Structures are given as structure tokens and as C-alpha cells.
Amino acid sequence: MEIKHSLARMIASALILAAFAAPARAVSMDKTSSMKDSCEAALGADIVQMAGYLPDVSREKYCDAFPSSGRIILSFDLATPRLRELPIEVRILRAGDDASDLSSRTVAHIEPRTYPRGALTLEREFSEDGAYVALITAIEPTGERKTARFAFTVGSTLWSYAPVALGAMLIFGALYVYWRHSSKKPSH
User: Packing angle between helix 162-182 and helix 2-21, nearest 10 degrees?
Assistant: First the structure.
């Protein structure tokens, strides 16, 4: 009887762990979300905020993980009024190790210009799943360039399934142990 109670507790623990370990396929961002901070980046002493939309899929705002490829609208808010007076350049890259070869990894590019209203948008068809980086560069009057970096993924990646697979293995392992112990008849 003691074994059945400990197995029941182990199964319940595994189910709870699996529920909390399951990843969100996409991180939605709204004004009340604690994920808002990951949608902000420092541009020197200033702040830039990013929000993304999949208008053909949902009405949700996304931050760093888009659930599918397709048409994505990226919106950047120049939160600090000072940034609205500076030329801002936007570059979207496929993530990679080679920092010197930006041209081959560039998916979209907006030449430097000012945004007096403080908002800029970029609409792009992302046909390939994968990791991307948005680089927002402000050019100071002195010529100094300051860059904010937003990393995001489009579509699912293999690693997004790892917590689910681990949770499933724990559940099946607990069920197997329970089945092995419950099928044995006590001998007297």
C-alpha cells in the first residue's frame, strides 16, 4: 500500500512538472505582461520597444517568438523623445556567427532617417523558420552609432519541444514504474 501512495505522489509530481515545463509556442506581449521587459532594449541611455504581429494568423502581439512563418509586422517604439530627432537605421538579419558578413544575412533593411512621431514599422514575409535579429541603430550628431538588439524566432524550433519531451518521458516513466509494481502479486 505504501508503494502505491508513493507512486501516486510521483505521478502527480510528474504531471505538475510537465504542465509547468511545457513551453509557450509563442510569447504574447501586452501592457500587463511581465514579458514586456524582454521587448525593450537599451539604445545607449535610451529605450526602444518592439512588438510584432502576425496579422494573417492572430490578433496577438508577440515579442521574441512568433509561432509560424508568414507575414510579420514589426513595430518599434522610440520611447525616449530624444531618439525621434536622430537618424535611425533598421536591419533584420538571420542569426549567425559571422558578424562581418551582414549583407548575406540581411533579410530587410531601412536606411537611416528620423521618425518624429516615434514609431516605425517594418512588414516582411518570413518564409523560413529560424532565429533572427533586429538591429536598431541610432546615429548621434557626433557620428557615433548606438545599436539595440532584439533576438526573435520565427516558427517552431527543435529546442521548443524539449520541455514537452522531457515531461512526457517523466510521465511515461512514472506510469511504467507504477504498472510494474502494481502488477506484482504479494506473496504470503
Answer: 170
Q: Which residue has the higher pLDDT, 77 or 169?
A: 77
Q: Which residue has the cell 521587448?
A: 39
Rounded to an integer, what distance in angstroms lies between the CA atom of residue 41 and that of residue 48? 5
- Three-state SS at 118: coil
**DSSP, res 28:** B
Name 151's bridge partners: 133
Lowest-pLDDT choice from 1-15, 61-75, 116-130:
1-15
Confirm if 71 and 123 have CB atoms less than 8 A apart.
Answer: yes
What are the grid coordinates assigned to 177, written together?
514504474
* Nearest one of 28, 66, 78, 34 to 151, comparing CA atoms: 66
Residue that is written with C-alpha cell 532565429 in the block: 131
Do the beta carbons of residue 83 and residue 118 sit within 8 Å? yes
What percentage of the chain has pLDDT greater than the value 90?
44
Q: What are phi and psi of 100, to 5 degrees?
A: -80, -25
Which residues pair with residue 72 across a beta bridge? 124
**pTM score, whole prediction:** 0.64
